[in-house]
């Protein structure tokens, strides 16, 4: 199954286009005397069991590797964070077979270095897709293009500082006769790469609706998967994103609307309240309704 087919299949299976971010923050987990690995694994195990019980299946998952690696202490031979990530990936394969897992690592280097980062995502962690930076160009991006794997290239990101670089006007590398905002020039480049390597897609934030609409319109007939972060705590709206995708004719089954802390710890700060699991499930239910492909 190609990655594009995997996206279509998982959207049909789940009935939504939600991507559930899995980014652990120890300070918001229930208080416990357990170690780092045990606390994280137990927390997400409780969530996954409840999701399965209620028939709640997202269309993708996205762990950010930095949240796990930062909990390691390699020089002390402590890999608690990475082992927790391994536990979670194993659980996803058991609880949610067929649902793509995107490793959010935003790697970007050249030649063999990029090839090593691709091996990290696809062979070491055995995930289905990865996020990468395109700043170093074709020889940085294409080592990630693997058969049956997805690659989400940073296009127009959701962070407040994105416009400082991504909205600069530049000569388009594909259409050298025109000037475009960099995010449009990058969309042209991503589409060019994807025409040779299906499965290459784009990260486009939910916090800048004008840019999202322009990019969605351009990708509407090009089969470019879109990973759309920024919903929830960053201020983006899944309802607005769904409206923009539909208005611009973008195929919903190829999009994934991501929310991380807004789903897994919606209270944001402080130890988890007694009803933490109920609050997590309420947030998941709400996003599933907003990002339903049947709505």
Overall radius of gyration: 19 Å
Seen as an oligomer or otherwise, the chain set is single chain
* Largest sheet composition: 8 strands, parallel
Beta-strand portion reads 5-15%
Total discrete domains: 1
Task: Tell how many strands the DSSP assignment holds.
Answer: 10
Spatial sequence of strands, sheet with the most strands: 2-1-10-9-8-5-4-3
The name of the CATH superfamily reads Aldolase class I
Mean pLDDT: 95
Unreliable runs? none
Task: Give the class-level CATH name.
Answer: Alpha Beta
Structural class: alpha/beta
| Individual helix count | 12
CATH topology: TIM Barrel
Q: What would your notes on this structure say?
A:
This protein has helices at residues 3-14, 36-53, 65-69, 80-95, 111-124, 138-141, 162-166, 182-196, 209-219, 238-247, 261-264, 276-290; strands at residues 18-21, 60-62, 102-107, 129-132, 150-156, 169-171, 179-181, 200-204, 226-228, 255-259. The protein has a single domain (3-290), classed as Alpha-Beta Barrel (TIM Barrel). With 295 residues, it is an alpha/beta fold. The chain contains twelve helices and ten strands. β4, α6 (138-141) and β5 (150-156) form a beta-alpha-beta unit. The strands form two sheets. Strands 2-1-10-9-8-5-4-3 form an eight-stranded parallel beta sheet, with helices on both faces. The chain has a two-stranded antiparallel sheet with strand order 6-7. The model has no long low-confidence stretch (mean pLDDT 95).
């Amino acid at each position: 199954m190609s990655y594009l087919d995997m996206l279509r299949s998982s959207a049909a299976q789940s009935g939504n286009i939600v991507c559930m971010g899995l980014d652990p923050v120890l300070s918001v987990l229930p208080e416990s005397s357990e170690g780092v690995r045990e606390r994280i694994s137990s927390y997400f195990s409780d969530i996954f069991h409840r999701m399965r019980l209620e028939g709640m299946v997202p269309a993708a998952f996205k762990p950010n590797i930095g949240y796990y690696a930062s909990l390691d202490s390699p020089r002390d031979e402590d890999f608690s964070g990475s082992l927790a990530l391994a536990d979670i990936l194993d659980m996803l394969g058991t609880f949610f077979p067929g649902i793509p897992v995107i490793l959010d690592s935003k790697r970007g280097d050249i030649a063999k270095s990029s090839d090593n980062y691709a091996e990290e995502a696809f062979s070491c962690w055995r995930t289905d897709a990865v996020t990468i930076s395109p700043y170093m160009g074709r020889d940085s991006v294409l080592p990630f293009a693997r058969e049956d794997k997805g690659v989400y290239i940073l296009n127009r990101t959701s962070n407040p500082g994105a416009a400082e670089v991504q909205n600069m006007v530049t000569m388009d590398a594909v259409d050298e006769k025109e000037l475009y905002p960099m995010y449009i020039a990058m969309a042209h480049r991503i589409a060019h790469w994807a025409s040779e390597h299906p499965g290459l897609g784009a990260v486009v934030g939910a916090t800048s609706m004008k840019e999202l609409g322009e990019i969605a319109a351009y990708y509407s007939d090009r089969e470019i998967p879109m990973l759309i972060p920024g919903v929830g705590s960053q201020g983006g709206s899944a309802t607005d994103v769904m409206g923009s995708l539909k208005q611009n004719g973008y195929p919903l089954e190829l999009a994934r609307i991501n929310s991380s802390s807004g789903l897994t710890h919606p209270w944001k700060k402080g130890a988890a309240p007694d009803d933490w699991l109920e609050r997590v499930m309420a947030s998941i239910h709400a996003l599933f309704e907003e990002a339903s492909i049947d709505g």
